[in-house]
Amino acid sequence: MNRKVIQTLAETISKQVEHFNKTEAECLIREFNLLLGEPTNTGRTVQGLDRARFRSILHHTFDLTDDIIMDGAFRAFDKDNDGILSLKEWIEGLSVLLRGTLTEKIKYCFYVYDLNGDSFITREEMFHLLKNSLVIQPTEEDPDEGVKDLVEITLKKMDHDHDGKLSFEDFEKAVREENLLLEAFGTCLPDSTSIEAFEQYVFQEQLEQ
């Protein structure tokens, strides 16, 4: 992609996507092109990031390691559900991950935790998510029991309409009352250190080149 194309694209994207100005959008486009790497054997350039490459970025750049969460993050980024992240999907997703408002982050985390996409976080989904993210002590006789107890405690705190599952409204209300519940079922947002390092690398260093 030559400089002129990148600048035009950056201008368009910065008008459509929240939280990034034109210069930052330009840096993110360059980073996206670097991540795509070399053209394939057929000589064609791949048009987007696949799941494996995206997971590698989440893992190495943002220190997110939970497989279930990483798959959920990919679904959240992949708006058109075609299995590939386009440039716009990549930048839109990063705008929430790096600089999202609380409202945007609530929507994002709920989407990640709603494993089957039915607009609810069910007991089963909570169980899978919590079992995956908790460190189970080998001495525990039945570690699943501990996870089940935690699911019930969480439901008691967050299930405002008492239907045994969390709707988006339940989740949003609980998080607004207690922000720490945003990542109640596992870490799906990068910490401030990872965000700072990524922005420093992408925005500062690229501008200096």
UniProtKB/TrEMBL annotation:
Keywords per UniProt: Calcium, Metal-binding, Repeat
InterPro entries: EF-hand-dom_pair, EF_Hand_1_Ca_BS, EF_hand_dom, Recoverin
SUPFAM superfamilies xref list: EF-hand
Location of the EF-hand domain: 65-100, 101-136, 146-181
Pfam families: EF-hand_5 (PF13202), EF-hand_7 (PF13499)
Record carries keyword Metal-binding: yes
Gene Ontology MF terms: calcium ion binding
Record-given protein name: Calaxin
Source organism: Acanthochromis polyacanthus (spiny chromis)
